[in-house]
Sequence to fold (974 residues):
Amino acid sequence: MNRYPWWKYLILGIALVIGLLYTAPNFFGEAPAVQVSSAKATVKVDAALQQRIEAALAQAGVKADQVQFDGSSVRARFSDTDVQLKAKEALSKALNPNPAEPTYIVALNLQSRSPAWLAKIRALPMYLGLDLRGGVHFLMQVDMKEALTKKAESFAGDLRGLLREKNIRHAGISREGNSVVVRFRDRAVLTQAQPLLADQLPDLTWVESTDGNGDLRLTGALKPEAAKRIQDAALQQNITTLHNRVNELGTSEPVIQQQGADRIVVQLPGVQDTARAKDTIGRTATLEMRLVNTSTEALEALRGAAPVPFGSERFVERDGSPIILYRQVILTGDSLTDAQPGFDSQTNEPKVDLTVDAKGGAIMREVSRENIGKRMAILLFEKGKGEVVTAPVIRGELGNRFQISGRMSSEEATMTALLLRSGALAAPMEIIEERTIGPTLGADNIEKGFRSVAYGFAAIAVFMCCYYLLFGVFSTLALGFNLLLLVAVLSMLQATLTLPGIAAIALTLGMAIDANVLINERVREELRGGASPQAAISAGYERAFATILDSNITTLIAGVALLAFGSGFVRGFAVVHCLGILTSMFSAVMFSRGLVNLWYGRQKKLKSVSIGQVWTPAAAPGTEPVAKT
Amino acid sequence: MEFFRIRRDIPFMRHALVFNIISFLTFAAAVFFLATRGLHLSIEFTGGTVLEVAYNHSANLEKTRHAIEQLKLGEVQVQTFGTSRDVMIRMPVREGIKQDAVAAMAFAKLCEADGGKIQTKSYTTAQGEQINRPSCLTADGSEPVKLSRTEFVGPAVGSELAADGAKALAFVVIGIMVYLAFRFEWKFSVAAIVANLHDVIIILGFFAFFQWEFSLAVLAAVLAILGYSVNESVVIFDRIREAFRRYRKLDTAQVIDHAITSTMSRTIITHGSTQMMVLSMLLFGGPTLHYFAVALTIGILFGIYSSVFVAAAIAMWLGVKREDLVKAGPARDQDPNDPNAGAVV
Fold:
């Protein structure tokens, strides 16, 4: 009757092992480490860098416990802080030949000490939230209206050029809010223009109407899908730009995520200097297009034999070679509306397609017409220093749309397009929520959280063991198993542990004991009623199960509501609460029954169970409601 | 060890009227306090800036308040928080000032008042982490006041959080009502929700009366308690259903009495255990979790009362009967024209 099939014990065993394995990384603590990330938008961190770092460390005679590449930075772990400092110096010297203009940021950081084999099975320590680690949290709102207005403006410009090209006479093009309005004097022209507009500007829907003074108008409004596409692109563009900028702060594991339709969350653990963080994030990069100076004086200056000629300036190209550009700015990033990588239809070479607005197009036309054969450089200015992204040769007269191709791989094309786009921030951002937590407060919070869970657990354990004896021990073990599973699941999901999360662990454990109390009380009741011990255990578990299920579902409803509608504290609490309810159903019923069955199951002639005192009232007739047929 | 040596069913339902009157009075009092005093909402709901600083000496609240008032932000709240050295300053949203700069300005003023200047301090911790933080340093290198935490919430975000909270509450109420109507019967569903919402209002009433800070944490606690309280009612209803099935000679009031009496031990022990955990949080959890734990405590204690007595009493008043829960056996086999139909040997 109270026997579990062997496969159920296998499941419990596997769950126990998984629980232990995935909880273990949390207890290894942190070791000093050095983190190398890219300082320039043009430089990427990859596996080759990891090898360079290993070589540099070997050369300096510094031994690293572990060197890891995690996608956006390389981290090397050391045994103590002295070795860490030596490593930092060695790496700075090796990777940044010019300390005034560092290519890589070498920062001191902490990294978990858990061994590599655990990391291989993806057993990683839980990600600690800001209120446990200290750091900065920003919520930024993207001004979507700006993005749409800019787009409407560029459509208006495109229209003007288009209609002029096709020789369609109109009575005026203007932008009203986020729509473009074209006025016509007579119907014939309008009918002629309509298919053209629908064809060339598919993102707009056109509505006809009549003006006050008899003119016919076509109003083009952005289609909802197109508007959403533009907004999504603007948001993604901003997120990418933020990623690059945040790397400069040298944080480990920054979090930059979209929240809702138009908000971005930025979390920087370990960063305490809010002013510097805001500066870095809010900074705008500018794009400039200038002609290359190929005169003889300039060539002399490149070789180093002569000074830079008057009216020109010296810059550095992506590969490091110098280049002399005229000071005059032809076009700025404001005019650039889009840059996309692609493949040339004729030669199948990777290329970058650039689109500028109408004003920019006119300037491009003029400059390119007069400078065919000369090179034009596109510069990215960050923190006041410019770097040449690309300097192609002008092959013909350029207009609104032109392409840059030749001598670039498709990754370079994508990278170039990304850089060009980052120069033109799609829409401005504003900080609407901000939080900073100091480092001591973070450590404090962890300690407080763990103490409350530990003491509460101890109190419950003592009570249960005293009141229910052996069954109480089983219940306590089940509660411990619950905690283990909960922490393991959180580590597996790499969920963020915050202070409300710890509070949820405490509360879940307090509520989870309910199931075991129900079972134990039922078993006592059955024994009181005169059932044999084996039957009492069986009946107790069965009858209690339906009630346990009901009560856990109602608590789960509350948990899911908090998860769906919550943010911040509430969400951190709700995630752990819901997971805790699920693990508690498993552990309270299955695990504790497994233990009971293991202990009592095989004793066929079981006389009594250790469940504490089963008090029966001295039976007096008529005092208790008895089932009578 | 058996704490609950109950010889016979305690006739609770005889006093159903008294229970309901008491709960109605407490409910009315809570509503009264909510209406007159209102909840002391945290900045998460109203918007504003909070600054938590730690002094290296016992804090002088007057001096702190005076320093902040120089910023002319309107009504600011300055109070100690946890220990006598930690001070929490709340500043409202103010037109015309860049909101996210308020915290920095306030810290600068506090630093000035203690004779220091804000500089960026760079150091490496003993474990090897590099920290750069703005610190208030006096001429002799000591730090009179340290920044523990700042929080700024824009007004738009605040009102959104309030709306989300209300939606969460509505979802929980409806979800639970639907589930209970499914599992038991609509009368129980109504009784359970009325009793447990009463619980929630009582907690809010306490917060309004004592003007404790009502933050997102407290909202999370309230909703968790709502789910937990309904547990109680579910356990009682389950027993009621079982008792209806087993003891056919008893009427509704007696069945309810029996159900409450037999689950009494389990109710008290469970609530006691949960309360032990919450007490641990209250004592060791620090100021952040303090009001969270207070809300849970009130919920757990009043929960026993409302879920057990009030829910059952209301169910009885709504006229719950055996037939609601125990579906009578189908009369398929009986032919209405058979004169011997229904005979049992």
